[in-house]
Design a protein that fits this description.
This is Serine hydrolase. With about 400 residues, the protein is an alpha+beta fold. It has eleven helices and 14 strands. α2 packs parallel to α6 and α2 packs across α7.
Length: about 400
């Protein structure tokens, strides 16, 4: 089921808005512009066991929006002169990274951020503490064998994120979670973290538990929070980062999807992008991102029609691009998230400066691997929020 029939079916689906607030899936939508950020929809339970209602800035796992955060950290580190996103990553890793089918073709961070490096998820992408990133990348399933990096077709791959995060660590000498906090979160006064590492206890106490549509816990219940281990660890390896050496295996921080952040704070990041706030993105780097998005040829994918340097553009091309979310005919830039029954997004109109940060939970799993597109539940949430904001003059 592609996005067009999914949207057409919206009127045929039961409206969550008709349920009592405490029976609805946890959902938050914050509409923002350069000057303000307003929680428009805040409903459902953050924790069903305790009956705690979700609040506008309760931290939640935002899934692949984490890749946008990683891209911003990479660009800021490049601005510091500590690494070149267009250079061979082998320079930083200390070992030679190559597609086995193309041993002479270098791999760059820019290629990986744009999902055109040839990396793919056939070998998996979670490398626990105690296992080797280099070994994972030597597996045949980790690579597209028909074209070299840079010429490989677009293929959305989570495996690239541990590579980028490890390169950033090696180039800076900083642990990835601390690097992201220094370059992205702290300048904006945002309290966020990766895999709950570094978040304050008061923040962790407000965690949103993710549930499957069947009602079972998916992530971030009490058993998934500190003091329990919150990052992947190989069997027999103690759950501690005391001896971790930056630049060896940043997969443990789940850079592909492990950011925990509240929607008001995510909207604050969106405002920084709308205003091109030099604290988190320089005008030069934002120009590179915008130019890359504008020049990229439409991908063969019907959802990721325009994607470059860790950012996606939606609603900017007609069919066959199946990426209508807001449905207002305007182009939006940002990133989508999907994992553990959650759908999330950070999107903004770079011309009008209006955007939305949202998540909704307990969304049914896809029925087919190539189903693609936005879920009807998140389309309904976004259009309801944007409509309410417009009627309220926000």
């Amino acid at each position: 089921m592609r996005i067009a029939p999914a949207i057409a079916a919206l009127v045929m689906l039961p409206a969550c808005a008709s349920l009592p607030a405490q029976q609805r899936p946890a959902s938050v939508a914050v509409v923002f512009d350069a000057e303000s950020a307003e929680p428009i929809i805040v409903e459902g339970l953050a924790d069903r066991d305790s009956g705690r209602a979700v609040q506008a800035n309760d931290p939640v796992r935002i899934a692949s929006i984490s890749k946008l955060v990683m891209a911003l950290a990479a660009m800021k580190l490049a601005d510091e002169g500590k690494f070149d996103p267009y250079a061979d990553v082998s320079r930083y890793l200390g070992w030679k990274l190559r597609n086995p089918a193309f041993p002479d073709a270098p791999v760059t961070v820019a290629q990986i951020l744009s999902h055109r490096s040839g990396l793919r998820d056939g070998a998996g992408y979670v490398i626990p503490l105690g296992e080797s990133l280099e070994a994972k990348l030597s597996e045949p399933g980790a690579w597209y064998a028909e074209a070299p990096p840079g010429e490989a077709p677009f293929e959305y791959a989570n495996l690239g994120s541990p590579v980028v995060a490890t390169v950033l660590e090696a180039a800076s000498g900083e642990r990835y979670d601390r690097l992201v906090d220094r370059l992205v979160f702290a300048p904006l006064g945002i309290d966020a973290c990766l895999n709950w590492i570094g978040c304050e206890p008061d923040t962790i106490a407000l965690a949103v538990t993710l549930y499957r549509s069947t009602g079972e816990v998916a992530r971030d219940d009490a058993a998934d929070l500190p003091p329990n281990c919150t990052f992947p660890v190989a069997e027999g390896i103690p759950c501690t980062l005391d001896g971790y050496v930056p630049g060896t295996n940043a997969s443990i921080f789940s850079p592909q999807g492990g950011v925990r952040i509240g929607m008001l704070d995510l909207a604050r990041l969106g405002q920084a992008l709308v205003t091109v706030d030099e604290r988190v993105v320089s005008a030069r780097r934002w120009g590179q991102i915008g130019t890359s998005l504008g020049l990229v040829a439409p991908n063969e994918e019907d959802f990721f029609c325009a994607y470059a340097l860790g950012f996606q553009a939606i609603q900017m091309r007609p069919a066959p691009c199946a990426d209508a979310l807001v449905g207002d005919g305007k182009a939006y830039v940002g990133h989508a998230g999907e994992a553990y029954g959650l759908r999330s997004g950070l999107w903004f109109d770079p011309v009008g400066g209006r955007g939305i940060a949202y998540f909704t939970s307990s969304v049914p799993d896809r029925t087919a691997p190539d189903e693609g597109g936005f879920a009807p539940e998140e389309v309904r949430l976004v259009r309801r929020a944007m409509g309410k904001a417009a009627r309220a003059g926000k």
